[in-house]
Amino acid sequence: MPTSTYKKIWLKSMRAKLGKSIYFGKPGVNLLVYMFPMILLASLGSIYLHLKKQTRVNQFNRVDMKKIEKFGALKRPMLVKGLGIVTVTEVMFLMMFMALLLWSLANYFYHTFVTITPQSLPTDGDNLWQARLDSIAVRLGLTGNICLGFLFYPVPRGSSLLAAVGLTSESSTKYHIWLGNLVMTLFTSHGLCYCIYWISTNQVSQMLEWDRTGISHLAGEIALVAGLLMWATTFPAIRRRFFEVFFYTHYLYMVFMLFFVFHVGISYALISFPGFYIFIVDRFLRFLQSRNNVKLVSARVLPSETVELNFSKNPMLMYCPTSILFVNIPSISKLQWHPFTITSSSKLEPKKLSVMIKSQGKWSTKLYHMLACSNQIEHLAVSVEGPYGPASTDYLGHDSLVMVSGGSGITPFISIIRDLIYVNSTNAYKIPKITLICAFKTSSDLSMLNLILPNSTEISSFVDIQIKAFVTREKVSTCNMNIIKTLSFKPYVSDQPISPILGPNSWLWLATILSSSFMIFIIIIAIISRYHIYPIDQSSKKYTSAYTSLIYLLAISISVVATSTVAMLCNKKNYCKGKYQNVDALSPLMIESTPDQLLPEFTNIHYGERPNLNKLLVGLKGSSVGVLVCGPRKMREEVAKICSFGSAANLQFESISFSW
């Protein structure tokens, strides 16, 4: 975009061919150049994931060791503090993106200072610095729009673009944070420059201008205020202490995007719309799934102020270890949705899905007291969104796995261990040796280890696992870990097993929704432009820019809502008819062991000390040792430093950080 080649040759050529179309007009160029390629890529990514999933039916992902050795260095941590844990690959892409922004700004500013000179200014016009400030303000907005174009790609939880390149929404949250800071820095600078310009030129009234066919200043100011409110609540001191304020303030994104479109007009807004379009599809699918209550079958209350919820699951719902489920319990809060790691394995327990919830905030504490203090609860209404997680995993590609956890950070590793148990029970592959290093504050937290192994001596005997547990605040055990309260619920007839909103072929259906909704959107716009907007534009009275923007936004909404609803109803009809109706019977593997039955032969418990991670990790044998960590930030940073670029070549690092 910043190049002269684009502006003077390509853009002119495209506008000559497409910009005068009676069906799309000026927005047609950006629809073709920016919207169409990304929707096509997202659709092709969904098809790729569907085909990849089909080839792995009844198979397991055995990654070639040479591939791990070849690309393992690119996944190593290069930065540990400041921006968080950042790998070599992420640093490379970050540098390229910053180079793009700096090049764009340099190109724009060069154009400003070359073209705006004392000789080029009218005698009765602005001063030189004012004219250049006006131009610089525009250029800052243009560069901010580049960042805005990428802002929404990390946000969709079921994005095919992220999954196709091995990312998840959770692991991409930091990209959204980086981009958000860049967007607001550039847009705030854009707004401040214009405020200074208007004040210095005695044009303060321009702040309230809403142009019918051009740039609307008032709309831009409303968008900027909404953005600043969101930005203010993202700072750690506010976000951690007042998370609900941060969470609900972020719904101002609707105000921000609406008035941003009014500010610049739909034609220019389409440059940054592809990611937002994909996000809208994902958000509406989540809305459809969240409308139903699911079958909560049982719950277990552990002495560590932890609750395990067990749901009935449709057998066709498959997910990878470390996946996340968003849970809403209306009796606690109708508005709050909280993400929890799934501890069950969809292969080992095809009719059950479990999550573990540690009492750490107001919501989880209310749930714990509700279940711990009452034996009379026969039914608990629950709605869910998800599961969301990686499309595939490569844990089988390592000689051994070392999992480092702190507190409730053990939960994703429970699902990994259970998945590997199932793989080994099929005799398909030999699973890697597993070492679990877990740190807990008190001995009561050791009860979380109850959830690791199913109650089957035959299956547990296949596990080559060693557990090293550290209790940091107690010298001896002060809690009976076997005091576990179990509650059984009676689901209503209307409650449904947790099922994929788009059925077993969800990626294929997502490709259908993306492609068909975009086609319907194009058809609606073509018809309205041809028979409504174009005739008015040809008259002396130009069509209002805000009305055109509203028409485009309504067309997008109608197409997404229609196609998503039809896809959901088709799949709901299929899995409710008969093929997957009887899913209430629970697998015999649903009842877990207690430590005195299975864990002593695998577990070493150390009281009154913290794990020496450097000693435990450095010197591990094997050509490829997968090191996974989930826990407090300092623990993740310590493990990342040990596995960082230039350290032991055989340590392959992966951080699991749930920072929604």
Automatic annotation (TrEMBL):
Bilayer topology term: Multi-pass membrane protein
GO biological process: monoatomic ion transport
TM region(s), chain numbering: 31-51, 83-106, 136-155, 175-199, 219-238, 268-285, 507-529, 549-570
Pfam families: FAD_binding_8, Ferric_reduct, NAD_binding_6
Location of the protein in the cell: Membrane
Names of required cofactors: FAD
Main localization (coarse): membrane
Family: Belongs to the ferric reductase (FRE) family.
Protein name: ferric-chelate reductase (NADH)
Lineage: Eukaryota, Viridiplantae, Streptophyta, Embryophyta, Tracheophyta
